[in-house]
Write a structure and sequence with these properties.
By secondary structure, the protein is mainly alpha-helical. The protein has one domain. The protein is built from 8 helices and no strands.
């Protein structure tokens, strides 16, 4: 399949490829068409990164997974023949669904919960694109949603921003996994 790029981050790197590979198989799009869609996703990511956060360390999982979901939703809408306005609505719909999501990697690794969140994020991107193409509009404009994501991320306690000091990482099972990793010489 070529190279996998952490787009926009390692913790969210399965969302855009998951959406793109599955829809390319479904619709039969050429690789050149998919490259154009990557440019659209990149442009959306550029806007988000310059108005808010894309890293879990800065803005929680809403920034990391949320950004990728918005990027995939907007690019997929464009791929499926949607207008630029519909693509922007898809971004807003997708991002709103991720607001407030904390970044709580167990043991500091992306295996728990990020991998599962990537799967759910891909489904959210597909749904947001379908909704935008069906005429559903984001009542709150995407730029405002991005601004709110920044505000929420800035207000989020540090323990919930990729520190592994809060959320799932602090459950008894999360702590046991970290302990096992340390015993095996893994990352702490």
């Amino acid at each position: 399949m070529g190279r996998i790029i952490a787009t926009p981050t390692a913790g969210s790197c399965g969302i855009i490829p998951g959406v793109f590979v599955s829809t390319q198989e479904r619709f039969g799009w050429t690789d050149d068409r998919m490259v154009e869609a990557l440019f659209a996703a990149g442009a959306i990511g550029y806007v988000i990164a310059n108005q808010s956060f894309i890293s879990g360390a800065e803005g929680g999982c809403q920034a990391e997974v949320g950004s990728a979901v918005g990027m995939a939703a907007g690019a997929l809408t464009e791929l499926r023949g949607g207008t630029p306005e519909q693509a922007v609505h898809a971004v807003g719909l997708a991002l709103k669904n991720s607001l407030g999501l904390i970044c709580d990697p167990v043991g500091g690794l992306v295996e728990i919960p990020c991998i599962v969140r990537n799967g759910f994020g891909a489904v959210t991107a597909l749904a947001a694109a379908d909704m935008a193409l069906a005429g559903v509009r984001s009542v709150i404009p995407s730029d405002e949603v991005i601004g709110v994501m920044k505000d929420i991320g800035a207000a989020m306690p540090e323990a919930h921003r990729e520190t592994a000091k809060g959320g799932l990482a602090q459950t008894p099972t999360g702590k046991a996994i970290l302990s096992d990793l340390r015993k095996k010489g893994g990352r702490s």
